[in-house]
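Ticket #4471: structure export looks truncated?
Reporter: QA, pipeline team
Priority: medium

Steps to reproduce: submit the single chain below to the structure queue and open the exported record.
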Amino acid sequence: MSMIKIGDGCWVASDTIAEVSVNQQANVLTVRTKNGIGHSVDPDYGCSIYKTAGRLIDEINKAT
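Actual output as written to the record:
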């Protein structure tokens, strides 16, 4: 198990992540864990919401 940084001071265990979804209208990601807790994630500085989602998904896949 490794920890994935999803925001300032917010880390989530990679094996607990169930879903990463994009809300394009609000320009925010939601990382939902297997126990149903959702974490709102702003895009990385200077990056699109989709690029940030791609980075998170790559990190999750590498960790599992």
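Status: closed, not a bug. The export was complete when the record was re-opened. Leaving a note from the reviewer for reference: The longest helix spans residues 49-63.
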